[in-house]
Structures are given as C-alpha cells and as structure tokens.
C-alpha cells in the first residue's frame, strides 16, 4: 500500500526558505501513470494547490506562488521536495503531498500533512 | 484560473438525513471533478472522481453527479462518521483549484 510522509522544519523564519520532503514508500515514485503534488491548508481555512511534478520532471505551479516555489523529485531516495522561498506569515499552513493520477485527475493517497509555522 | 464555488458553506443535518452539496465551475470542466472528505486533523480523503465514480472503499450512500459547470455530491442517509468538511476540485486544467468547502454539522 502506497504511503507518503512529509517531513521538514515545523518553524521557519520570515523571509527564509521553507523546505519539505515527501518520502514515498510501498510503490514506485517513477511510475509513468502518476505525478506528485503539494497542497497546503492554512489553519482553519480551505485547500490550496501549490504544484505538481510528473515522471518527466515537468512542473506545474500555482500562479500566485510560481515565483517562489521549486518542486523536484529524487528517484534514488523516493522523495519529492518542495522549496518555498521568501516566506511570510501567510505561508503558515499544513503542507500535504499527494499522488496525482493523470488519468483520473485525482489526488490519492495523501500524506498526513505537516504544519509549518512562519514567524520572525 | 477556473474558479470553483461550493454551496452551502455549511449545513446542519441529522443522522439519516439526505444531504446535497453543490459545486459550480466558472467554465466547462466536462466531468473533471473530484470530491474529497476531510475530518478534523486529517488529510483529505478521495470520495469521488470523474464527477460520479465512487472511489474504492467509499460507502455507496455517497454519490456524485453533474457535468459541464454544475455538480452535486449527495449523501443519501447521513451517518455519524460523515460529519466532516467536503471539498470539490477541478482537474480539467492547471492550475488545479478547490472549492471553499462545505462543513456538514450535527443538527
């Protein structure tokens, strides 16, 4: 059974870079049938898509975050990474990684999420 | 961007009630519409893909319908474990977008 686990610092200082890793287990990160995505959820608010990366390394980013984000895949470690630079308090959120099915257009499964707080 | 608008934002219902949530897209998305359920402190869970297809393991009291711009999620007989927040999401094109969510509360 495929499992995803997010990891990274729970606290990031304002203006610095938020770096998270999603480790994939129980399945191949290199499958051509799937891509990988990041989604975030500010406390008490709704879901916001951040971006996706497919097996070719093509990336698709939120327009509002595009200038600050980088998503990459390390197949040797079965990890998907998210870097978000120049963070502010508005980037405080639970960050989720999830597998994206291109054929079904759906995120499933999701990681449990990790809370990142941005503070000076 | 394709905007997704859910209504209502919250609904109070009793166990056994039929509950319907709607989601409207700002442009035609065919059937590229997903529904997720999220419980407190948990990640969202996929309920329905391609507007009307039930994800494996999801109870049959959940159903989805619609195409184009208007979609509905129906819970035929609300159970205690169904009290949660429900989100729709369009998968027609990037950037992917979610609806604002509908909270199903106990009446």
What does it look like?
The complex is a heterodimer of chains A (120) and B (107). With 120 residues, chain A is mostly beta strands. Helices cover 0% and strands 54% of the residues of chain A. Chain A is built from no helices and eleven strands. Chain A has strands at residues 3-7, 11-13, 18-25, 34-41, 48-53, 59-61, 69-74, 79-84, 93-101, 106-110, 114-119. In chain A, strands 2, 4, 5, 6, 9, 10 and 11 form a seven-stranded mixed sheet that branches. The model of chain A has no long low-confidence stretch (mean pLDDT 96). Chain B has no helices and eleven strands. In chain B, strands 2, 4, 5, 6, 9, 10 and 11 form a seven-stranded mixed sheet that branches. In chain B, a hairpin with a 6-residue loop joins strand 4 (33-38) and strand 5. Chain B is globular and about 35 Å long. Chain A binds chain B through residues 37, 46-49, 52, 60-63, 96, 98, 101, 104-113, and chain B through 1, 32, 34, 36, 42-46, 49-50, 53, 55, 87, 89, 91-92, 94-101.
Discrete helix count of chain B: 0
Mean pLDDT of chain A: 96
Q: Please identify the oligomeric state.
A: heterodimer
Strand content of chain B: over 45%
The counted number of beta strands of chain A is: 11
Spatial extent as radius of gyration of chain B: 13 Å
The description of the largest β-sheet of chain A is:
7 strands, mixed
Order of secondary-structure elements of chain A = EEEEEEEEEEE
Summed up, what is this model?
Chain A is an all-beta fold and 120 residues long.
Secondary-structure blueprint:
The complex is a heterodimer of chains A (120) and B (107).
Chain A: E1 3-7, E2 11-13, E3 18-25, E4 34-41, E5 48-53, E6 59-61, E7 69-74, E8 79-84, E9 93-101, E10 106-110, E11 114-119
Parallel strand pairs in A: 2-11
Antiparallel strand pairs in A: 1-3, 3-8, 4-5, 4-9, 5-6, 7-8, 9-10, 9-11
Chain B: E1 4-7, E2 10-13, E3 19-25, E4 33-38, E5 45-49, E6 53-54, E7 62-67, E8 70-75, E9 85-90, E10 97-98, E11 102-106
Parallel strand pairs in B: 2-11
Antiparallel strand pairs in B: 1-3, 3-8, 4-5, 4-9, 5-6, 7-8, 9-10, 9-11
